[in-house]
Design a protein that fits this description.
The protein is an all-alpha fold. Helices cover 72% and strands 0% of the residues.
Length: 139
């Protein structure tokens, strides 16, 4: 029979996958801004008559900000997927704690997930499940 700690780690692992999916989906919203920015850079004549179209710097601003937000969101989603896998395998304790802290940035679901993950990982019985993978500073 599984212990309560093992069951909670299993559930946290699943919730990490779900939260990562939501973050990755929300990170796709700025694709619209990226497309508009690239359109302004590549074909500015579409946005107005000659001499009256938006400056290229606006296109670069839209493209870089949109692309940066997409990249950041997908990177965090990837981190949460990896942390979910590590939780299920009881490996990389420190990475799981860092991922829990980073997930707190994404309200409301990420915050709830991060707080619960930190609370569960702080228990001595859970630390013992990770075995030798817990650095001495966290023991």
């Amino acid at each position: 029979m599984k212990s309560e700690d093992e069951e909670q780690l299993r559930l946290l692992s699943i919730f990490h996958y779900v939260c990562a999916g939501l973050i990755a989906l929300c990170a796709c919203i700025p694709i619209f801004h990226l497309a508009i920015g690239l359109a302004i850079i590549i074909r500015p004549e579409v946005f107005g008559p000659a001499g009256n179209h938006p400056p290229a710097i606006m296109g670069w601003l839209f493209a870089l900000l949109g692309g940066g937000i997409i990249l950041f969101g997908w990177t965090v989603a990837g981190l949460l997927v990896f942390a979910g896998r590590c939780l299920s395998q009881r490996r990389h304790y420190t990475l799981c704690l860092v991922a829990a802290g980073v997930s707190c940035l994404f309200m409301p679901f990420g915050t709830v997930l991060g707080v619960f993950t930190i609370v569960v990982l702080s228990r001595p019985t859970v630390k013992s499940l990770f075995g030798k993978n817990v650095p001495p500073v966290f023991s």
